[in-house]
Amino acid sequence: MPKVTYYSGETFPLEMHKVRIIQKLTLLPIEERLAAIEEAGYNTFLLQNKDVFLDMLTDSGVNAMSDRQQAAMLLADDAYAGSATFSRLHAKLTEIFGKKYFLPAHQGRAAEHILCKGFVKPGDIAVTNYHFTTWKAHVTALGGSVVELLKKEGLEPVSTNPFKGDIYVAGLEELVAKVGAERISYVRMEAGTNLIAGQPFSLANLRAVSAACHKHGIKLVLDASLLADNLHFIKTREAEYASVSVAQIAREMADCCDVIYFSARKLGFGRGGGIITSDQKIYKDLRGLVPMYEGFLTYGGMSVREMEAITVGLDETMDEDMINQGPQFIEYFVRELESHGVPMITPPGGLGAHVDAMRFLDHVPQTAYPSAALASAVYIASGVRGMERGTMSEQREPDGTEPLAHMELLRLAIPRRVFTLSQVSYAIDRVRWLYANRQIVGGLRWVEEPELLRFFYGRLEPIGDWHHQLVAKFRADFGDSL
Ligand code: F0G
After folding, report:
1. Radius of gyration of the chain measured on its C-alpha atoms
2. What global pTM score does this model have?
3. What CA–CA distance (Å, rounded) separates 59 from 244?
4. pLDDT tens digits, residue range 138-147?
5. For the CA of 107, the nearest atom of ligand 1
6. 24 with 152, same domain?
7. Which residues of the chain have a pLDDT value below 50?
8. Residue 217: what pLDDT?
9. Hey, whose CA ends up nearest to atom 8 of ligand 1?
10. CA dist., res. 364 & res. 366, Å (int)
């Protein structure tokens, strides 16, 4: 929180920036929103942005840039090889994380591709606190399997554990004893753990995981895509780090890990990604894959303008005032909805506010995709586009059976520095209304189900007539309001 005390004694999020460039938004009438989601096959990924009022799908590639970032983009040095822009980004990464080598990639999943191609063999096990969709797809495509070692609170929707992203370290020891360290390709620790509602891990836990990995000669890889949120939470929730700078925390985290990769669509308010390490062997093992899949070693698929923006954005990530706005808005979002009885994932994490669709739509079975149904219902009710993070985001087993997700979440992402508090208040209001009318909302079924990453472009339809009933109730309650 900013160091500002209000007269009332309450605290509110307070932005330490002002808006200098704006983009006009449109809020369509509810009947047109219904037509748009029908057109999109009840999949919010397939909505056209022109039909969306507040785009809370993701915080990826949609964070607002600063004046300094925009200015830096004009100074970019265009060159296929040896660009000064690349050197500036490399130097910034080394300054912050203390790692010597940098392999650029066009986005986070491209870094995952390279890491998995380099490290995962058929039959291997890749261990993680919790998987992310694209990473798991790469591991399994290479014949590996994923073992998650989250502590049990990580999957409890309501908890007082401030670090639900922590790994159960004894579980790692048990796994090594059972399968042998040589079968474990690497341990991946995800900062701001995405699929469990942006929940952080503690630095104490990272240290313990690091010690366990290194005792057995296993590589520890940090997915730093959501590092900014995790840094904020270590600083504000881990007593030992209350007076340590986020830059110092970042360095201590990096020192625990052999490899760090990131999506700069999240980290550094930019677009792009890459892998950093100080291990020369790892660097050399992976290096050849970059020109093959991404681009030459001094751009890796990124434009020079993007690289300049990331360099400045990384600097801004080391500034507490720049990274605390997202988590503060999310906390406000979650606590307000919670105070009105809406089931939320708590404590609030990073990335966005996460609604617990399992409890919100407890009359909809998981096989009828409650999170996806809730995402569609929220869009119809408000024009706010959220993202399904539940069973629809899982992939079927090779025998066709469908694993049910541990959690059914609707994510309402807060892209960094983009929305105002009044826009968040509007979203809160409409989600409250929907909760009061939740019995109307039913499930969805597939019309077209792709085999791979089905949640991105699969199409569904409502089971029954709930979508029309929802529009009728909205009109009855709100008259001709948008
Ligand atoms: N790791 C994490 C933790 C992520 O959240 C993402 C992307 C990636 C890796 C892949 O990065 O998109 O640059 O290829 N998350 C986005 C999201 C897609 O909306 O949560 P990418």
Report:
1. 22
2. 0.96
3. 27
4. 999 999 999 9
5. 13
6. no
7. none
8. 98
9. 108
10. 7
